[in-house]
């Protein structure tokens, strides 16, 4: 209903302003509510399709055309929607109101055009239009902005008659920055150094240190793993193991080195096709090998080859185009301008490679192209090797057909590789993945810069400008700040596609530095924080919840890369029907490593991560939900990893031999939240400690472990604020 209301608002605005009416933007939303359920698609009632101009203006047997272009009064469609008798349309449900009928009349009188392009050949929808770099707007509070991002934000806040929130205190900013840029809280040493730094550029220096840390690259890579739907197993019922960790490590290295995102894109999609491709280039194409592989006996290899190609295309659509291409596999997209032919022309770029799977002698399937990399040293120190899945172009070209109904069993017309007509054409004539990657990184293509700028804005500000990260189509949410989004997209490209510099721009803004506490007027006027008049307060993601606990306890391993690890998890999670694979708990520091290194089985993801809304990674995930359930509190209190963190934090508080109980609690509280507790909080924790000592008079560490458990279970400990 929210989207329909927004669409109807656009209709009223267009109608009132006298702008040219556009079918998809102005007319279709009205018909979608009242008419298209019966009169659209190949099975339309009375053979009348209101979503197809030829059907709308053409005679149907003995029936006259429903619409006579340029003559609304002579059009049966208008006669039927005006009627108050038995022949009224729609026959059931609410009738069209006077404004909606007037809109249809005006559209028909103007010629009933279905054209979605303007005189310059540009599509009407905001996401598909060329990116124009707008000038930052003037603002009243000229002393508030720190960069141009703030001018766009402040102009909207002032237009609403509101004020931005005051700047957060330095400790809050230190923790927020560390969580946003590294996924870890600051250590007390880092925090105290920042708080004591008197230099004018202390904030910027702190940001630069975080961006230069290895933890930054791991944190950004973790967000990329969701998009790629990275896992350590194939999926489906057998869900056998695969070796994808070399690709994961290559992604970490790329973010560490700040590889420009256009070059990163070309590596991820077509690294193997670059001139003089290196092993790193080939390993990067593992992005496209994160598709699932069905190893069941009796499967059709061609069916699952096609499914793998479709998954790659759908993933690219979500990640770079912000588009739900899946719909167009079976039919023209219902709401966006992607046709079924567009889908299979894009499909053709990815259809020229060796299959993921080949039949084996016993009827199951095995992986396709691989790259050999050095593995971890064996127990005796001997060198080992590992194979990881990569892309490789097939020796024989493959013809691509449009599949009727999306079924590989029903090929129809052959199509060449190509891009949608409503978007800029590729500059070259290539027809492989390299050509597709070049088109995705062509600055004239308006979707990738907008989509990527929006995603990075969401990482930094915890609230993207377009809420539907993977749907920039007409059914997705419009941007809250369209001019800012275009300015950011153009800036991202102009500054060389540097992710680090882009994030630095965002987190050094006054917008970023605001407090998350808003006054009553702001909360009343903008409860969803669409105006960005305060900082966003959200729970951190699943892996970060665990990383924070281990870091606060001082036991988090900073070991980087290598095969995935097996931290403690409850028995019985892995009950495999088709094999005897078992979760064997890692020893030593491997059980205490960052969450992105945890072994990811698609049919049974790590249980504490699932509790905090981590996905199974069977498909591309652009947005994780954020829930708040009692189970999460139980995980924080009882999961082995968190119990170990509680014990470690208790030890850190107790090791301060000359400190008072209050000083020890303050130390633990600061480790967890980066701030000093207030008097009420401190008294509450001291009372808890005294109560536990009374209950366990002979225990020294046990009471402190209870206090540590409370500190790790605080909402503030697992929240970005």
Descriptive terms for the model:
single chain; 721 residues; mainly alpha; two-stranded antiparallel sheet; 8 strands; 4% strand; disordered N terminus
What does this structure look like?
β1 and β2 (365-367) form a beta hairpin. The protein has a two-stranded antiparallel ribbon with strand order 1-2. A two-stranded antiparallel ribbon has the order 3-4. Strands 5-6 form a two-stranded antiparallel ribbon. The chain is mainly α. It is built from 27 helices and 8 strands. Among the domains are: 2-117, no CATH class; 259-445, no CATH class; 637-720.
- The residue fraction in helices comes out at 40-55%
Number of helices: 27
Averaged pLDDT: 93
Please tally the β strands and state the result.
8
The span between the termini is 31 Å
Low-pLDDT segments: 1-17, 359-365
Structural class: mainly alpha
**Largest beta sheet: what is the strand line-up?**
1-2
Question: How is the biggest beta sheet arranged?
Answer: 2 strands, antiparallel
Outline: globular
Beta-strand percentage range:
under 5%
* C-alpha Rg (nearest Å): 29 Å
Question: Helices and strands in order, then pairings?
Answer:
Blueprint: H1 2-17, H2 23-34, H3 53-57, H4 76-82, H5 98-109, H6 148-159, H7 170-182, H8 188-196, H9 202-212, H10 214-228, H11 245-256, H12 261-270, H13 279-284, H14 301-319, H15 340-349, E1 357-359, E2 365-367, E3 370-375, E4 384-389, E5 400-403, E6 411-415, H16 433-440, H17 447-461, H18 482-494, H19 499-507, H20 520-525, E7 538-539, H21 542-552, H22 607-611, H23 630-638, H24 640-654, H25 661-673, H26 679-695, H27 702-713, E8 719-720
Antiparallel strand pairs: 1-2, 3-4, 5-6, 7-8
